[in-house]
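Annual report, structural modelling task.

Input specification for the protoporphyrin IX containing FE complex:
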Amino acid sequence: MDGDAPRPPHRRFGEEGGRQSYGGYLRLPALLAQQQPQSQAPDELLFITIHQVYELWFKLLLHELEAVREVMSRGELWRARHLFRRVHAVERVLVEQVEVLETMTPQDFLEFRSMLEPASGFQSVQFRELEFLSGLKDERYLGSFRHAEEADLARLRRRLAEPTLWDAYLDALSLRGLPVSGDEIMNSLLTVARDRGSHDDLWQLAEDLLTHDETTALWRMRHVQMVERQIGTKSGTGGSTGAPYLRGRTRLHYFPLLWELRAWL
Ligand code: HEM
Ligand SMILES: N[C@@H](CC(=O)c1ccccc1NC=O)C(=O)O
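The model returned the following structure:
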């Protein structure tokens, strides 16, 4: 019978079906049609591309962090740690990528900057979703989306109502029998920190949360350095004071208790 014949080892996977192609599977015609500069400035293509790449990574991060939240609240800590490794790797790329945009001179940016008004990173829905999901819920930012699509506003409102990564970590503590109401949380965190023999998985997971927090802060610092390099003390196209506003945001923490814990150890 033909079906019993051994397959020749050189027969390559995928030769039989032939329904899929590289560009078709990856939807490249649609993807590569989305870079549409509105000026003649040579660096506008770079500016658009880099922002789109950020938004693609934001989309993946939201997907992975939702999964992290889910598995943490179920107590599947090993799975959360596995996903955090990916999240951290992507976040390091986000920080490094700033360098690509910094190859643009401020003079070249000025060729198209005024045309961007009043748009700015303020209006990045996915960036704000990442903040809300991580635990930094600031309703005032809904105001930046007054003119946004209703679907975007709905996404943000949903994120404001949803549990955060911190809520999910508390679920994990609670499943371990550690109390998590009100004042008890710091004691539970100290128990985890001091009894690594029993709780190392919870400790490592808290460290993963902290790395997510720290890498986000690194991105904020890198972003504001780029901003100072590009526009100095000018105010932002989004209407803020620019660098001073952004400097203030570098001090934010997603998980303040994990930072405070250090003082109690
Ligand atoms: C030439 C490069 C850039 C400059 C000069 C710049 C400047 C600014 C300024 C001044 C703000 C404050 C809002 C305003 O008043 O306009 C801002 C906010 C923001 N930008 Fe940029 N930006 C640059 C590139 C980027 C890139 C590549 C991203 C990646 C997505 C980004 C994401 C954001 C986000 C998310 C915010 C809101 C931050 C917050 O509210 O905490 N920016 N940017
Ligand atoms: N806010 C920037 C302009 C800017 O960078 C920007 C403009 C439109 C869309 C995204 C942007 N990126 C981050 O703010 C500025 O004030 O120069």
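The two ends are 72 Å apart (CA to CA).
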